[in-house]
């Protein structure tokens, strides 16, 4: 469930001067025919971007990558989160995780901490039929990989995409 917590250190490590701590983690996955399949990424306050993708389809192995991103990438991710207004939402009326799967989004920005959990969302029809279509729509567009006029996404934004492309060559496998 969504939770807002005050307090904590404003370390600002990697987040940019005067902006406080920034942490973001997103997970989407399910347990099915091919076992536990998921995609997860996190931006840590020290600038480390961690990525994991587990698919057992055709006996694929888990992919884990780590890169350090620049403070400007963290600032841009933070700006996207701020402009989305996701920190004002509450997941108490969102669909509970089910056999189809689950999504989790955790964000720490300064003294604010939120954590959302919901089911996998297949389309805008699922969003519209929920008990909180406005709040769930913000979540849906934020985690999608396609652009939306009001809510830009992490991986289609020009600055992050070009930085990601430049950094992908310097990734190293972990594990």
UniProtKB/TrEMBL annotation:
<keyword id="KW-0539">Nucleus</keyword>
<dbReference type="GO" id="GO:0008380">
    <property type="term" value="P:RNA splicing"/>
</dbReference>
<dbReference type="Pfam" id="PF02792">
    <property type="entry name" value="Mago_nashi"/>
</dbReference>
<dbReference type="GO" id="GO:0035145">
    <property type="term" value="C:exon-exon junction complex"/>
</dbReference>
<comment type="similarity">
    <text>Belongs to the mago nashi family.</text>
</comment>
<dbReference type="InterPro" id="IPR036605">
    <property type="entry name" value="Mago_nashi_sf"/>
</dbReference>
<protein>
    <submittedName>
        <fullName>Protein mago nashi-like protein</fullName>
    </submittedName>
</protein>
<dbReference type="InterPro" id="IPR004023">
    <property type="entry name" value="Mago_nashi"/>
</dbReference>
